[in-house]
Structure formats: structure tokens, C-alpha cells
Amino acid sequence: MKTFNVILLSSALLSGGYTTASAQERRGQVEFTDSNIVSGVISLTPGTELKIQSGSQVRALGLDRVREMQFATEREDMERAWRFKEAGQTAKEYFGDPYPVRYLNTTIMLADGEKISGHLYTTVLYVVAGEKVQKVILLAKQRGKEGETYQQLVYPKRISFADNAAATTATVKLKLSGFGAKPEVVAITRGALVKLEAKAAGSPGEFEMPSPLGREFFLAVKTGQTLSVGWPQPVDAKITALIRNALTNLEDFLDDRRVLGAIEDATNAEIYSLVFAVRKGQTHGTSDQTWRLEIYRWKLDDDGRVMLAGRDYFFRGVTAKNEPPPPVQLSGKLWNLHQTGDVWTTSDP
Predict the structure, then answer these.
(1) Can you give the pTM of this predicted structure?
(2) Does residue 3 carry a pLDDT above 70?
(3) 319-336: buried (b, 16+ CB within 10 Å) or exposed (e) per residue?
């Protein structure tokens, strides 16, 4: 079995309407720069999606949203291994033969003809034809061996699908009631944990945000100093205790964490936890406390052990040492969103 290693960075994504891992299998073909073509049923690693960065914006989308993907060389360099001549000095010495390095730009075409160009995060595809499984790795950076040429670095130049891609819109609308005047609204998608910031649009309580590109999302609202997060109740005590124990091994700038809740995604063997994290130790001579309201994604193995797979935050801020942090409310309204087309509205819990 031949494995193709390809260079890809990050890029931007779209979506509308929820999908599941089972929907991420599509018949198609992968064309390589050496004219080789691999055809069959194409899928991603379960629980993952495409993640792409265009400029400063990162988006994520499912494979079912893609009509076609094209890859082109962005830059090629010949590099050599090096080391510092002396510890603590900046002078370098080079050794060994040069080797080729290639960076690729990715263009994702959607159902409506829209194109998203940028750098794709490392992605693993599987192409199944009968009993044969071909693994295609799309890397952020393609590096050859010493003495190799660019022509010897093979990569996919086009991925196409036999069926139609799911419809996609660039933005969706939110209609949120009961959260006061001028709230801040932020969503975080499941899976890649892509952060989407909503902007006020139209009447009070109406917002527009980038499409989650078919991914489910968590939603949070900040009104004044109060934080509200869509989360199911009652909280799962067993899963929450498991994550609380796992967090004792996590050390970084935020040295105090309170687990507000945790939910299991059994289909993808994952757990999502809602965490309020605070820096209580003194920082650069100030006693002010930095805080963040975060989502953590954990992978769950067959033995019930968890490993941190990703994290991002809804909101962050700073409070004086003697001031209480902002209160956090678990909101059934923000958890039980009702979708009609590309419009999401709050409903009673």
C-alpha cells in the first residue's frame, strides 16, 4: 500500500444544517501529480472534519459540503539541516545534502460555486475500493529526503466527488430573546472547536454569524457581566467528575479551573466540558485575575481514560483580585435552539 504525504496548512469553512460522522462517506477520486488516480469511497477519520484558514479566519466543514478540492504549489524551497555552532550563539553551521520543501495552497469549491482558498490543516483521508483501503495524508508541509528533487514529491492535485455536495450558505441568522440590550454572542463548533462571533443585525435580538458549515455548535451570550451558555441540565455528575480529575494534570497559565459540566458524544468517543478558568497567581507584579470561559474537547478510549484533544474560549477578561469573577448561567434556551432553514431561534428548555 502506498501512502502519499502532502503539504497543507489552514483555511476557511462553511456550513448549514447538522451532519453526523456517517454522512462523511462519499464516492469520488483522488488525482495525484504523477497521474495516478485512486477511486472509491472517500471518508475522513471519524469525528474529524476539514479545517482551513484563509487570512486570519479559521473555519471547519464536513466532507459532504465539498464539491471539489484543488491543490497548487504556493512555495518551494531547498533547505539543509543545521545546528548552532555554539550554545547561546546565533551563528549556524549547515550539514548534509539539500532537501526539497513544498507549501501548498488549497481551494475548496462548494455546492453553490463559492470557492474558499487558503491553507488546510493536516488531514487524513481514506479511500476504500472493495477490500483495499488507501490512506491519503494531506500535510501542512511536505518535506523530501536529502538529495531528492521536487518532482519526486507527489501530492494530490484534485479531489472530486461523484454525488452532489450539500447546500451551503456563508452566514446564518440567530434570533435570541430575553438576553437584554446589546449582548455579545459567540458560538464554538463541535469537533474542530472553531469560534464564530455573531454580529447584531436587524431588529433587537437578531444576529448574523458565519455559517457553522454543517457542524453542531455551542452558544454563549454575555450581557453586562453575566455569562450564559447553552448546556443541558441536570449536569452529568459521573462524566463531570471524570473531567475534573483529568484537569488536575493540566498545568498552564490559568491555574484554577471549575468544571461547570461535561457531556459525552458516544458516537465519536468524545467528551466536551465547560470550564471556567482563572489565573489566581500573581502575574508581572499585578494581582488582577485573568479569566476565560472555555470549551474543552477530550478523546475517550475503551478503558475510560481521557486525553485533551482541543480547547477554545467563548469569552475572557480580567477582574481585580478582590472582585468576584462574572457569574455563569447554564441556559436551557441556548441549548434547545430551533432551526428553520438558516435561522436559529431560542426556545423554552
Answers:
(1) 0.69
(2) no
(3) eeeeeebbebebbebbbe
CA-CA distances (angstroms) from residue 332 to 17, 183, 345?
20, 17, 12
Domain segments of the chain: what residues?
Answer: 4-161, 171-345
* CA distances, 217 to each of 26, 195, 220, 344 (Å): 24, 9, 10, 11
Distance of CA 146 to the CA centre of its chain: 34
Q: How many CA atoms lie within 13 A of 256 on its CB side?
A: 9
332 SS3 class: helix
Measure the CA–CA gap between 173 and 168, rounded to whole angstroms: 14
Radius of gyration of the CA atoms of the chain, in A: 23
Flag whether pLDDT at 38 surpasses 90.
Answer: yes
Interval 280-299: pLDDT, tens: 766 665 667 789 999 999 99
Grid coordinates representing 128 are 476504500
Q: How far apart are CA 47 and CA 255, in angstroms?
A: 30
pLDDT of residue 329: 93
Nearest to 267 by CA among 334, 232, 216: 216
- Asked if pLDDT for residue 337 goes beyond 70, the answer is yes
- Phi/psi zone of residue 250: left (φ > 0), alpha (ψ -120 to 50 degrees), beta? beta
DSSP annotation of 151 reads G
Q: How many CB atoms lie within 10 A of CB 61?
A: 32
Burial of 23 (0-12, 13-18, 19+ CB in 10 A): middle
Cell numbers linked to 101: 520543501
pLDDT at 87 > cutoff 90: no
C-alpha cell at 72: 497548487
- Provide the grid cell at 257: 479551573
| pLDDT higher than threshold 50 for residue 176 | yes
The grid cell for 247 is 484537569
Among 84, 79, 73, 75, smallest CA distance to 145 is for 79
Distance, in Å, from the CA atom of 72 to the CA atom of 253, rounded to the nearest integer, reads 39
Which residues pair with residue 104 across a beta bridge?
73
